[in-house]
Amino acid sequence: MRSKFDEQLELLKTRLIRMGALCEEAIANAVKALLNNDLALAKKALEADVEIDQQEREIEGLCLKLLLQQQPVARDLRQISSALKMITDLERIGDQAGDIAEITIQAKIEAAPETKPIAAMAEATIKMVTGSIDAFVRQDLELAKAVIEYDDVVDELFIQVKKDLIRLINKDAKSGEFAIDLIMIAKYFERIGDHATNIAEWVEFAITGRHRNGVGK
To answer: In this protein, which residues make up the domain named PhoU (predicted)?
Structure first.
């Protein structure tokens, strides 16, 4: 009975890795589409969002099956309940990558000096998503904590983007629409960082039984 349960837990981890990889792919395609004005890549980011939604439904079904059929307790229960929380954040990451792609398609944004910090934000958020999923799969508490701390990097980059765009508008009022599009995109990346932080916090809970917001013991 336990061996069957362990197999299903491994399947859950595999599915989460796949969903995380799709999120990373969506973010990467969205930012490449932005920097290169590549509408084909923007559409790929939107397609990934659809698959991410499907993965969420499938993983949710697997988690509910484990809860109902296996009736896990203690650490096993925390892993499954944490996974249910994590997929919600992963689904939202997919949505936000899709939102970035849609702005790129509609606004036809081209690369500019002001887009460089946004590229750095994308790289940082991909690192956070990868780290948070790896932390869950490996049950690595230190990695989960490192992901949470790394959100400060994304926040600092967001502040830099805002400052750059304020200077741009002051210099050239005609750049207002461009600046608004970029600040929206930067905000989506900032939110992606927040969702990756949420995932890492649920990994902490899965391992320790304690959540930073007071869930658990």
So the answer is: 16-104, 119-203
Closest by CA to 193, choosing from 162, 151, 160, 149, is: 151
Whether the predicted pLDDT of 117 surpasses 70: yes
Per-residue pLDDT of 17-54, as tens digits, reads 999 999 999 999 999 998 888 999 999 999 999 999 99
In the chain, what are the domains? 2-208 (1.20.58.220)
CB 182 within 8 A of CB 162: no
Residues 171-215 have pLDDT tens digits of 888 888 888 999 999 999 999 999 999 999 999 999 999 898 876
DSSP string computed for 49-109 = HHHHHHHHHHHHHHHHHHHHHH---HHHHHHHHHHHHHHHHHHHHHHHHHHHHHHHHHHT-
92-106 burial: b if 16+ Cβ within 10 Å, else e: bbbbbbbbbbbbbbe
Residue 94, token pair as written in the block: 């997919």
pLDDT score for 110: 65
